[in-house]
Write a structure and sequence with these properties.
The protein has 227 residues and is α+β, with helices and mostly antiparallel strands. The protein folds into three domains: 72 residues; 82 residues, K homology (KH) domain (GMP Synthetase, Chain A, domain 3), CATH 3.30.300; 67 residues, Ribosomal Protein S8, Chain: A, domain 1 (2-Layer Sandwich). It has six helices and nine strands, in the order E-H-E-E-H-H-E-E-H-E-H-E-H-E-E. A hairpin with a 3-residue loop joins strand 4 and strand 5. The two termini are 23 Å apart. 20% of the residues are buried.
Length: 227
């Protein structure tokens, strides 16, 4: 990760967002210094394009903590097995209570993948995946109870996430063409973190547009802007 970056934008917030994107970290991890503010503009510069410059520097203690955590965070086979057992027990009870669903669990090197299917599975998805993501959070907490090193838990229901991924990738490409054609940025509706990541990843190598996120959770949005 870079230690510091100077970013620009039409407003200080936009400049900071661009800097955070370049550093690939959150606002809490950096110190912000305004180099050129939108407020300090002379009479003779009002017709010039407005540019705000900021300098973002990664906080030293965050860099050290991140390195330390990375070295110590090793998911063991015992962690995986214990997490698997916790999740399996919970899902068996869930099936007994609501019925009409089946599930399968697959162990990865550092994660557990869950697939829920069956006639009753659709009601566990919710509006635009809100329920499925809430359920994933709950199952992850249950699975990692008393686990030394946290195991990543990934849940899909009836192939919803894969279908959603393809829809978002197609949307990203359509909006790329729109921004390229009219030169105006597009701000998408609020999305979940994994959905925003799909948009960013799909357009990260675009020759015509750049992407970044604005706002706070749960109303954080992706912006697609012309390069």
């Amino acid at each position: 990760m870079e230690k510091s970056v100077i970013a620009e934008g039409k407003t200080s917030n936009e400049a900071i967002e661009n800097g955070l994107k370049a550093l690939k970290c959150s606002k809490e991890d950096v110190e912000v210094k305004i180099l050129e503010s939108e407020d300090k503009r002379s009479f003779f510069s009002i017709l010039e394009p407005r540019v705000v410059k900021v300098q973002l520097t990664v906080k030293e203690h965050n860099k050290k903590n991140n390195i330390k955590e990375h070295k110590e965070y090793i998911v063991t086979e015992k962690d995986i097995n214990d997490c698997y057992a916790n999740i399996d027990k919970f899902l068996k009870e869930l099936v007994e209570k609501i019925g009409q669903i089946d599930y399968s669990l697959n162990k990865g090197k550092e994660e557990i993948n869950i697939l829920i299917s069956g006639e009753g599975s659709a009601k566990l998805i919710g509006y635009r995946g809100e329920t499925i993501n809430a359920l994933q959070t709950i199952i992850s907490a249950i699975g990692n109870k008393n686990i030394e090193n946290r195991v990543k838990v990934l849940l899909d229901i009836g192939g919803y996430k894969e279908k959603r991924k393809e829809i978002l990738k197609e949307l990203a490409r359509k909006l790329e063409k729109t921004v390229k054609r009219n030169g105006k940025k597009i701000i998408l509706e609020p999305m979940l973190p994994y959905e925003r990541k799909i948009i960013h990843t799909e357009l990260q190598d675009s020759k015509y547009v750049t992407t970044y996120s604005i706002g706070e959770e749960p109303k954080r949005r992706v912006v697609i802007d012309k390069k």
